[in-house]
Structures
1.
Amino acid sequence: MSAGSSSPARRVLVVGGGLAGITAALDCAAAGASVTLVEVRRRLGGAAYSFERDGLQLDNGQHVFLRCCTAYRALLARLGSEQLTAVQPRLEIPVLKPAHAPVMLRRGPLPAPVHLAGALARYPHLSLGERLGAARAALGLMRLDLSDEALEAQTFGAWLAERGQGPRALAALWDLIALPTLNVAAAEASLALAAFVFQTGLLSGADAGDIGFHEATLAEIIGEPAARALRDAGVDVKLGWRAERLELTASGVQVHGREVLSADATVIAVPHSRAAALLEPLLGEPARALTALGSSPIVNLHVVYDRQVCDYKFAAGVGTPVQYVFDRSRAAGAPAGCQYLAVSLSGAEREMEMSVDALREQYLPALAELFPRARNAHVQHFMATREHAATFRAAPGAARLRLGPRTSIPGLVLAGAWTSTGWPATLEGAVLSGHAAAKVALRADAASRASAPPREVVL
């Protein structure tokens, strides 16, 4: 190399075009790396995507976020789509129960944790004793040390039961937060992850838990802006490109698909089940153990009525199979005068096994119980979308199975909401993992890999 010449740009290969991969690719490109991103689908966004059905633009799921999700919100600002989201000025959750008046869970103006005291004191779906017990349990959650490994050995439900919170309190209060954030019921959830969610999202600051909504489709907010941002950053994006196997050579890791790609650092940013299959021959037991993370499904129902039946932007259900319902009429482009409601069902093992007809038979009457105007409305469309492995299972023991971004193979880096971000499988966790992976990829010492023996891995 002649004097005055510059070193070639560091080469980074990102496998996976979800939020983690998008974030890692943008960070590496911003640092001056030459970045290639490959994605098996014909679109970006990973598990957060949209599709067209019967003239409607539908999201696969109803992904919300909190004001405290600063990394995710910063990514949207980076993509230029943050204006297509809205965050509540103050936490408000309409709670609907059949044959009962609607209840508004609303935070007060006082600082945390007393900002929720008024809402809890007036909550009619718990007895006075249950409300007092819930207040004591919330204070106990605040005092838990998140670094205590013992929290990972117990379920949130068992911990609550020890503090007098029975099945009715779990269903009417604690699962309102546990199910949408952990994708398992409180009775099954890791106490460590549940404590993190409640401490970070509800108890760390008065406004931390204010809910953020996507006002447009996920394609408009994530997928399409990400494609533009990556292009503008100089990232070479290859869609419809499946990583079939990895090969460890003297010069580093090669990724084999429809062609062979190599780089100074390779970021594997795919779901944990897919990552386990790709990585197990290289990493051995840590990769095999990823399968033990398991998965939790999410089912979404898409119901279009011929008139407006719901007056809420979103609402939670108690004493009903309906968990959360969202009015997505405007984003989907529903016909004038019609209303499109999306019902989000987390931890939906039972619903995953139900036919569309069975789901219709159960959930249309349930919606009519919550929204009386639906009883006389005509249902123009009823559809179901299913994400069998929407998230890893946030059960006790999950923490020891989640891997960090750095692996035992120099230049091989991991990203994804399933990695050890501290967060459950959320939009925020995925973005944080991408930032962490980029830091490792940019620092990884490619030269150290020259001592590694050649090794071919075939899946």
2.
Amino acid sequence: MGMSGDAGGRGVARYVDAGARATVARAAWRAEMRKCRFDTIAVHGIYSSQEALDFNQGSIVEPIVMSTSQGYRDTDELEAALSYRIPTWCYSRIANPSMYYLEGTLAMLEAYGFDGDASCTVTSSGMAAAMLATEALLCQDPKNPHGRINFVSSCRVYGGTFQLFNVRWPERGVECRWVADPTNLDEWASKIDDQTRFVYGEFPSNPGQSCFDIEKVAEIAHARGVPLVVDATVATPALLRPLRHGADIVIQSVTKSLAASGFVIAGAVIARHGMTCKCATSEMCADFATWLKLWPQRDMGPSLSPMNCILALNDVRTVRTRMDKVSRTTMDVARFLEKHPRIEQVDYLGLESHPLHALAAKYLWLADAEHDDLYKKPVNRFGHLMSFRLKDGPAAARTTLDAFQRVWRATDLGRIKSVATIPAISTHHQQGEEARKMADVPANLIRLCVGGEHPDDVIRDLDQALAAIGSRPVQVPAIEYSAGGASSPIVAKR
């Protein structure tokens, strides 16, 4: 691109030089922050006091920049910005200062303890993140243009992911190859061929608490030149950082455990620099998350609002302490349920009785527990998602769910408040009975995400709800709904 401006030094080059200096300064600050402990990174992220003084009137909290776009000094700066040659946020569908602070923090948290580096792009939801990342990988291989493109995934995934993989991508002619047993390494290997574009798994899975050996599956995928994508939403980087174990891309539904307050719908794609991907361009492989932001996300538009960025960032600051607390509470709840006469099975990886406990314990560690005065040694933590199955069948599951008094009935997880649902009639309903059977999501299973309440109170609510089985029917108050149109809110009266 030619340079414009006069001989006095004005021109695109002037702005490119200034942008380069700013990039170096921010990189130096980021390098210093990467030397800090996990909690310090979560609290401060990439927002420095110098940046606050230079750009935000000294505000110690990252700003919510609600403007849709950025103004420029002249046409030279505009040209440099829109050709991506200087740091810019130009238009909030592509980038925004508030978005930048969240992305930088999440990238550093996922790369904590990782020898390499990573970048992040945030999206409007967790499903937007899964869609954006996997769609970009479903490209034709110029060296092998013949044959049907496919990808390999564990069948133990969230219901929305199952629909994306089982319905949406096949609608475009892409084959999904399901791995029925994610612990079977031979099954993973047997599904991959020359037209495979990526391998995908959840750790732990929602709702069944399945997991897989990330390091070994990454080795299998990389031997065939394809990336491993891991959805680590349930664990968060406070308990699991898949990049350290060979994964190339991490998917986070930030909505869930990272943003526990329940105010935010958000997602994130975090990718290692220099990932394995045989059919991608060198630019994609070098920095996949940034490439997603500058090109596919720009064109498709699943961006995150500035308000949601800062709300999420505020919750992220305490994620390690929070995940420690809710993990310990969930363990108490799981032990109670394991001994309850009405319970057929408890699915929680923290229980030593769980068949995958040892595998989960290989990967799920509380960040920096060995540097914490409370523990002073490495400590396993298994998160706050669990499920349990009722001996008396689906009807008993519904009776129990209806009898909860403090546990919320909702299709949500990761909240600071305890929430439960029956996946077979909610989050995994659209999969159909056959697919639910393959994924081991029976109708008598209740998914419980334990919040920040005291464990005694959660257990007390579970106990009284389970007592409702076989006793008098649960009395559900009659509700009258207002006669509003389709666009009107429904007002309930008890």
3.
Amino acid sequence: MIIRRLRNIRLTWTQVAIVAAASALATAVIIAMATKGNGLSYSELAALRQRVAVHTTPSSTPAASTTAASTQAAPAAAGGDSAGLPLTSSAPADTGADAGTTTTDGDTGDGNTTGSDTGTTQSSSTSTAPTATAGHVFEIALTTTSYRAAFGAGSVAHYLNRKLRRKGVLLSGYRTLGGSELPDYLAMVSGQAPNSDSRTDCAIYAEFSGSATASSDGQVPGPGCVYPDTVLTVADQVTASGKEWKAYLADMDSTCVHPNSNVADDATLAGAGSEYDTRHNPFIYFHSLLDLGGCSSNDEGLQSLSKDLRQAKRTPTYAFIAPGLCDEPSAGSCPDGTPAGLAGEDAFLKRWVPTILASPAYKQNGVLMIVFARAPTVSGSHPVRTGALIVSPTVKKKSTVSTSYNPYSVLRSVEDLLGYTPLVHAKKAKSFASLAVAAS
């Protein structure tokens, strides 16, 4: 990642490798600090450091080391510690076997609920990470006011319901965490639960207290929006496995655009247009990505997606994709005259999903998740049933599963599919990973 910043500086290949090793080792140290409470020993840290050293040894010729990716740690063997993290006794056993499958698509109820649904109903009993079953995971994050609006008979999302839904499995019991968007997105990538700041979509880009430390389950208590560098995300897990992640955000012209610390997040930011929404970009809320260059290297504008999908080797293992503000259900119109609100989100899907499904990477055991957070226009603070759609070459098409899932389930499922040990509240969340790889 840092190597990309040095492309205009004259360095020998040995010097470049040393810089890469330092960056990778720094990542390893942060991972070690974050997982220390789960049993990381000095011998395991030494092994991780050795892994970094081995895979950042300079090549004898420049031609063999033409990209930053060639200096990253290589992936671990499938079925082992494939996230580059220590295996702990807190990893869950449940991989998402689901008895709630039906074959009808007639569930059009709104399903709003006043109950709290944490999705942490599974037990923890195994000490091994899951075996990776997907080559690439694509996650499209949208918003809706209700399940009825997104998937009901009168939905304006015609492409989603008339074409795309036939290709996948509908999770009709999928619910949000509460009363705003950002907590869902933060949970999807880190497993962290909502707090007083994230429930207001972090109107202030507030740092956590310098003394904030994670509890035994990994949750960071107290107010704050920008998590300490010891808090990990699925992006850190992908990097630790020697692979690449990327976020693709609409109307972001630069990389990793975010406000200054502890200031109001209410203005157009340099490097982004007026339709860019920080709430749709959860990766800017973690110092583990901000401080080591992961965000500046991998958090990009949506315009990069088409290019990256052309070749499987250029397509990230984990891709997070989100539209702009005019596609929020509350939007009345888009500046360019294109459809707004849910119709705009549907147009967004119609533009990007066929490209994803036609990509070489998707065809190599790829999985597409289309998940909905709660729209800001919904009153109250209760979770809302929104539904979600999972598409893959091997999924049971035209099927519906009524089991209750939530954003922690999204993270758990991504980690199960890619072979990573679950983070924080994803450890006990229900996984739908097995649905994504079920035989047709």
